[in-house]
């Protein structure tokens, strides 16, 4: 059993992505925070990436301790992360850091997050400034979310960084790409809800955290470089199933956190967004048109 407040559990989720996960794990080696343990969860990969990562550790390519966990089926983002969170919670950790496997962390990233969350017991979640991989272009500098439609917005998205978002401040959500939270959050609101499977699960978790009285904070001194959606085809060419989870879960997030009137507004917004997605399929010359339309229809008929 660890001593309270001394160590951080870092949780990385792998799914069929050896190269990105290996680079992420290697970047953790350069952290200047002295006391952490990594939980690597493999979400039922079929490409032997899990075995390769274990072999890397056995051959001492990584110099820190790792607990390897493997699921019996693909549990999605929440399910895979929750598996490790439960293990770390049982081991007595007070702080937990979710890091996307397609992210590369900077040496100060964890130190700055821990400093921030320790500075105020009301802070439940704190997150990093995130850049597109190998660039000075911002991907995330804190998040906003509409409690009427579920629509999310990354502050600073696509902007070159000139220090315009260098102030720590409260935000409405932190993305799961780099999200540090305290043990008390689990005690108060529980884990991420696994029925989302993919997308919005951590955004809904942020909403519930704020509703329970916790602060959600953006810390720009913690910096991350993100390859962005490599597991789902990237931003420009997402896999067809992405539209299903996007449309369904955006609506479900409002349904499970807001009142009936806002839920009705979110439902009609979902229909409007489905129309826009269908329009893009044809105007944007996307492939697999029929498959994409089927996923959109499935999403708008799922309640």
Task: Produce a short descriptive summary.
By secondary structure, this protein is of the alpha/beta class.
The major β-sheet equals: 10 strands, mixed
Total of helices:
9
Helical content, roughly? 25-40%
Rg of Cα set: 19 Å
What is the number of beta strands? 12
Give an overview of the whole structure.
This protein is 38% helix and 22% strand. The chain has helices at 18-28, 49-58, 76-90, 109-118, 183-189, 201-211, 241-255, 260-283, 289-300; strands spanning 8-14, 36-42, 66-70, 95-100, 103-105, 123-132, 138-140, 143-145, 152-154, 169-170, 178-182, 215-226. Strands 1, 2, 3, 4, 5, 6, 7, 10, 11 and 12 form a ten-stranded mixed sheet that branches. A two-stranded antiparallel sheet has the order 8-9. α7 packs antiparallel against α8 and α8 runs antiparallel to α9 (289-300). The longest helix is centred in the last third of the chain and has 24 residues, at 260-283.
List the helices and strands and how they pair.
Blueprint: E1 8-14, H1 18-28, E2 36-42, H2 49-58, E3 66-70, H3 76-90, E4 95-100, E5 103-105, H4 109-118, E6 123-132, E7 138-140, E8 143-145, E9 152-154, E10 169-170, E11 178-182, H5 183-189, H6 201-211, E12 215-226, H7 241-255, H8 260-283, H9 289-300
Parallel strand pairs: 1-2, 1-4, 2-3, 6-12
Antiparallel strand pairs: 4-11, 5-12, 6-7, 6-11, 8-9, 10-12
Keywords:
alpha/beta; 38% helix; 9 helices; 303 residues
